[in-house]
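Q: Second attempt. The first request was missing the SMILES, so the protein and zinc ion are both included now.
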Amino acid sequence: MAKAIKIEESNIKCDHCGYKSPRIIPRQAKRYINKPCPVCGHNLLTRREYLGAIGFLFIVDIVNLLFKADENTYCKKVVVTSDKSGLSIKDVD
Ligand SMILES: [Zn+2]
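A: Got both inputs this time. The predicted holo structure:
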């Protein structure tokens, strides 16, 4: 059985200029805290944004422990963002 929630891509995006890092392993994002954007120098990731993302990953782990997906499971693709305003989920279908 597949996971109920699958993370397909994870990266860091600059809130200021829109720069997007190459794919990263979500739990390794800590290395980007307070690092400057390579394009504009703006802070790429605050500690608060990082903690929001880690909290989301924790919830994903719990959901995946409780629920599994199969070929009949309805799939929905969303983009989850953790920024200065908090955590947001956008529908991309
Ligand atoms: Zn930037």
